[in-house]
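Why should sequence recovery work at all? Because a backbone constrains its sequence more than one might expect. Tight turns favour small or flexible residues, buried strands favour hydrophobic ones, and helices have their own preferences. The token representation captures these environments compactly. In the example below, the structure is given first.
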């Protein structure tokens, strides 16, 4: 049985342990009950969603996912062309902004869902992303991600999502050079995020700015409450869970 990450808590110095989950949910086209069970078992404070519902009645679908996961909707979905942010009631939402990225003709529209959340005296910028399948466009989006993260105006931030790139790719490398790659910094759980039975790849990740302490990061396979059948049924990606200590400001 996989040992759990540190629980959410506020430390005596005002810093906060925040659990961040990144999850590509394939527009909730699969088993939504399994999806909610996986999310609840991870006990996240923040969920960076990719491929959130973004067409017919997407707001109702997002609200249903938040409710069944025991979370609240923060921002994103159709307004960010797929990325979305959910949070627990522990978070105070200070600011949100959804950003549509420059689009290459013939390729999907991409965007970022962003928010600034406060956990007591700790403030955390959050960015959920789903980058392009095409290398050139993806690399440009990686640069825009770093710019957007810096523009949130907080000293500590996290970016999480489906990169469509592997650790040896140039966009993944761009982000890992500027930020802390959660798995590489403090590996925990399973590394690879592709669907069970597919070729092993790590294409989903959680990154944190310098100054945030990564307490552990990886796929929560084997975590109590998470059944392999639910991971298989929920969507075509595996989730990435990170525990981060965010300093007080």
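From this structural description, the recovered sequence reads:
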């Amino acid at each position: 049985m996989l040992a759990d990450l540190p629980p959410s808590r506020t430390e005596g110095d005002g810093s906060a342990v925040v659990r961040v989950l990144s999850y590509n949910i394939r527009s909730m086209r699969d088993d939504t009950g399994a999806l909610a069970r996986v999310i609840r078992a991870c006990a996240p404070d923040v969920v960076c969603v990719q491929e959130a519902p973004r067409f017919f009645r997407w707001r109702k679908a997002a609200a249903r996912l938040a409710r069944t996961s025991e979370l609240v909707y923060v921002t994103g979905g159709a307004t960010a062309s797929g990325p979305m942010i959910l949070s627990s009631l522990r978070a105070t939402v200070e600011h949100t902004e959804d950003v549509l990225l420059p689009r290459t003709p013939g390729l999907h529209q991409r965007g970022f869902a962003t928010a600034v959340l406060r956990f007591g005296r700790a403030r955390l910028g959050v960015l959920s992303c789903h980058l392009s399948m095409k290398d050139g466009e993806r690399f440009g989006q990686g640069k825009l991600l770093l710019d957007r993260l810096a523009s949130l105006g907080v000293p500590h931030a996290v970016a999480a999502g489906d990169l469509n790139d592997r650790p040896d790719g140039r966009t993944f490398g761009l982000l890992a050079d500027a930020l802390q790659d959660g798995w590489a910094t403090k590996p925990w759980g399973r590394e690879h995020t592709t669907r069970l039975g597919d070729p092993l790849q790590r294409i989903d990740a959680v990154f944190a700015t310098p100054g945030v302490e990564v307490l552990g990061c990886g796929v929560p396979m084997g975590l109590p409450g998470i059944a392999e059948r639910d991971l298989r049924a929920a969507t075509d990606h595996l989730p990435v869970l990170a525990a981060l200590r965010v300093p007080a400001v």
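A few observations help interpret the result. The mean pLDDT is 97.
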